[in-house]
Automatic annotation (TrEMBL):
Residues passing through the membrane, by range: 20-43, 49-76, 105-124, 165-187, 207-229, 257-279
Alphabetic keyword roster: Membrane, Transmembrane, Transmembrane helix
Species, as recorded: Folsomia candida (Springtail)
Keyword Membrane in record: yes
Domain of life assignment: Eukaryota
Protein name: Uncharacterized protein
Length: 361
């Protein structure tokens, strides 16, 4: 998908020669980074290779980021039609401090890609390809060595791909959620008006508008549920890994690498602090509409029993996290505390249970 400036909407680019570079970067470079990181971690897990804790954590970070980027790319590719149909053609202004924070968050995501490639890959050689080359038995064949060097030099491609898809998901999710909340706010104002409950026709018009809002959410259901599940599954692991590095590994890591850890932890924290409340607010606001309906029914004289049954049959609009039309959880008020509670719990567990002084770096 791409943003058409002239038409001011998302448009689909069909599979063609124009997408060859995208397919190579996603299905070749991202998958190769996944494979190399997974080989190192499995070798460390089963004792085939000996690598330091710093390399292990770095490899885990590479695996999480590349897997996150690949899953999001596949998600967008599979459900691009649903996403463009749901996404509107107008953009809301956001002059408040949250809007500024979102813009700066996007800038940070782009900037950290350059820092990651220059410092971590080129200078300190903490990429999985260099680590694989260092543990391979001598002599390493020339074709294998050439491929490892090639993938190492071109690591800016998967890094840029992950940054690009992360910016796309963050931007579209925030804008679409704001517009959805605007529609729900309009419905809430209409439900609070006495004119809505004056007669049967006005009530039917109001419920039809609510059903239309439900339909819009249903169009992008597969896209949204999988995006929420992917983001809220991988982001806690990002937070825990980089929180641990920030808290426990300052004496053992060079400053230029150490600065990158709290930067990533901060980006993930700010991103989820903005996005999780937005997702939960949709459910909370729709519950308020249903509560307003119950209060408005008091003044209805005719067909009160029929109307009560009809309102009871209408579901509360909510966002879900799931996969393949199976919902794992609903984004409601307790989701935020559960998410950040899990991050704090696992961070404290890792910090208190792992003694960095006795480990080899």
């Amino acid at each position: 998908m791409d943003w058409d400036v002239a038409q001011k909407k998302l448009v689909i680019t069909p599979i063609s020669k124009e997408l060859i570079s995208w397919m190579i970067s996603v299905f070749v470079f991202l998958n190769m980074l996944n494979t190399a990181s997974l080989c190192l971690l499995l070798g460390k897990l089963f004792g085939f290779v000996q690598v330091s804790l710093l390399v292990t954590l770095g490899t885990l970070g590479w695996l999480l980021s590349s897997t996150f980027g690949f899953l999001l790319e596949v998600l967008v590719c599979k459900f691009d039609k649903n996403g463009t149909l749901k996404f509107p053609s107008t953009l809301p202004p956001s002059p408040d401090w949250k809007g500024i924070a979102r813009n700066k968050l996007i800038d940070l995501i782009i900037a950290q890609g350059f820092i990651l490639y220059i410092c971590v890959v080129l200078i300190y050689r903490l990429d999985p390809y260099y680590q694989l080359e260092s543990i391979l038995p001598d002599p390493v064949s020339l074709p294998v060595k050439f491929l490892l060097h090639l993938f190492r030099v071109t690591m800016w491609i998967p890094i840029s791909q992950v940054a690009r898809i992360s910016v796309f998901i963050v931007s579209t999710t925030i804008i679409a959620t704001h517009l959805a909340l605007g529609c729900i706010s309009a419905l809430d104002k209409a439900a609070s008006s006495r004119e809505t409950w004056k007669n049967r026709a006005s009530i039917d018009t109001h419920l039809l508008n609510y059903a239309s809002c439900q339909l819009v959410f249903g169009i992008g259901y597969d896209f949204v549920t999988l995006a929420i599940a992917t983001g809220q599954f991988t982001c806690p692991w990002f937070s825990v890994v980089f929180n641990f590095i920030s808290l426990k590994m300052y004496p053992f890591v060079d400053t230029s690498i150490y600065v990158y850890a709290p930067l990533i932890a901060g980006i993930v924290l700010v991103g989820m602090e903005i996005m999780v409340p937005l997702c939960t607010k949709i459910y909370q606001d729709c519950k308020e509409i249903h509560a307003t309906w119950r209060r408005g029914m008091v003044g209805v004289k005719n067909d009160a029993k029929y109307l009560r049954k009809k309102l009871r049959s209408i579901q509360v609009i909510a966002l879900y996290g799931g996969i393949n039309s199976y919902n794992f959880y609903k984004c409601k008020k307790s989701t935020k505390s559960t998410y950040f509670g899990a991050v704090i719990d696992y961070t404290m567990t890792a910090t208190l249970s792992i003694d960095t002084k006795s480990l080899h770096f």
